[in-house]
Write a structure and sequence with these properties.
413 residues; alpha/beta; N Utilization Substance Protein A, Chain:P, domain 4; OB fold (Dihydrolipoamide Acetyltransferase, E2P); GMP Synthetase, Chain A, domain 3; 5-stranded mixed barrel; 4-stranded mixed β-sheet; 40% helix; KH_sf_prok-type
Length: 413
């Protein structure tokens, strides 16, 4: 294969891969120099001239003329008689430049050279892809479902780049079909060998924060700041917002008239319940707001241990804890305090007993089921309707009746 024909075939890569001229020349020179090293042991004394636009290339080997019989390195030196066959007036000590045709490298070397070029171009593409998505880390990105696997959904963007949405990064209620458009944030870009793996997430707190930026103009413009986001994906989230302009109500602006602004975000997150609260540096007020919709009576803060005792009326306890304990868990994450719910004092005749006191007679998992819905004392359980408890817990009617019998006996005694 002649130099020109080989370069013509290499030039196809420039069009197919959209590689700029300078980059292609650098890749080509690197590939040719590797081939020369394998053939001659060194490429230090070779000049490579490439012009991909014209489709031509020249390789010149430079050697020093030495007397016949004194050649020690055939790659660096050439005998006087051999030099004079190139040009008759050469003398010892002069430099000789001789063009090397690719065919001289051998057919096998040329095939290896082409394979090496393909590999280098793929490596270049992967490096560019890695840099491109590394810069997009933390940004919202949209791609189309290519196929659905048990442990991940494989997405493809408009440029054909593959993006992975792992099962654990999906909202529990997410259900995707081939061709669906999916939004999430680019969470990370990992190199698997030489190939970048782009990971998308829909469960990250940052995804919710970026949705606020996209959907609420005042957040995008910086008039409202999202101070902190905590969430249990697909279930509940709390977002603390603040504004440096007293004329702006940050909560009202984020929620919108009748929830119009936040509705799109809620829908995107599989109907995740989002509480938006006003941020404040007043710790007691911040904790009180974080526990909404419950109304807090008072709060006792232990700064040294990052704990707070929250005093509530009996009817407010279940609201503070929330379904599955989500509300109090998120309030704790939002404020950075471990929150202990304390019921306000009750009259002596209404003395109560913690359910945990019955651990010898009632199994721990049953007590935990009651605690999930904010019932952790004997009287709080006894005041409930059995049918309602069956509906709100994972307990059977027979189990609930047995628990109530044990609790009633305590007070009868």
């Amino acid at each position: 294969m002649e130099n020109l024909a080989l370069i013509d075939s290499f030039s196809e890569f420039k069009d197919d891969k959209l590689i700029d001229r300078v980059t292609l020349m650098a890749i080509l020179e690197d590939v040719f120099r590797n081939a020369l090293k394998k053939k001659y042991g060194s490429d230090d004394n070779f000049d490579i001239i490439i012009n991909p636009d014209k489709g031509d290339m020249e390789i010149w080997r430079n050697r020093v003329v030495v007397a016949d019989g004194e050649v020690e390195d055939p790659n660096q030196e050439i005998s006087l008689s051999e030099a004079r066959r190139i040009e008759p007036d050469f003398e010892v000590g002069e430099d000789v430049s001789e063009e090397v045709k690719l065919i001289q490298l051998g057919r096998r070397a040329i095939l290896a050279l082409r394979q090496n070029l393909i590999s280098k171009i793929h490596e270049h593409d992967n490096t560019n892809l890695y840099k491109q998505f590394k810069d997009l880390t933390g940004d919202i990105y949209t791609a189309e479902v290519h196929h659905v696997r048990p442990k991940a959904v494989i997405l493809v963007d408009d440029e054909g780049n593959e993006i992975v949405l792992p099962k654990e990064k999906q909202i529990p209620s997410d259900f995707f079909r081939k061709g669906d458009n999916v939004r999430g944030i680019i969470e990370s870009v990992e190199l698997k060998g030489n190939k970048p793996m782009i990971i998308m997430s829909r469960t990250s707190e940052l995804f919710l924060e970026k949705l606020f930026e996209q959907e609420i103009p005042e957040v995008f413009d910086g008039l409202i700041t999202v101070k902190k986001v905590v969430r249990i994906p697909g279930e509940k989230a709390k977002v603390a917002v603040d504004s440096y302009d007293d004329r702006i109500d940050p909560v009202g602006a984020c929620v919108g008239m009748k929830g119009s602004r936040i509705h799109g975000i809620v829908r995107e997150l599989g109907n995740e319940n989002i509480d938006v609260i006003n941020y404040t540096t007043n710790t007691q007020l911040y904790i009180s707001r974080a526990l909404s919709p419950a109304k807090v009576s008072s709060i006792k803060i232990d700064e040294a241990n990052n704990r707070a005792e929250v005093f509530l009326k009996l009817e407010e306890v279940s609201k503070a804890i929330g379904r599955g304990g989500h509300n109090i868990k998120l309030a704790g994450l939002l404020t950075g305090y471990e929150l202990d719910v304390i019921r306000e004092g009750t009259p002596a005749e209404d003395e109560d007993v913690e359910l945990t006191e019955f651990s010898d007679e009632i199994e721990a998992w049953i007590i935990a089921e009651f605690a999930k819905i904010g019932l952790d004392t004997a009287r709080s359980v006894l005041k409930q309707d059995v049918a309602d408890l069956v509906r709100r817990t994972d307990l059977e009617e027979e189990t609930i009746l047995d628990v109530m019998r044990i609790l009633k006996e305590e007070f009868e005694d």
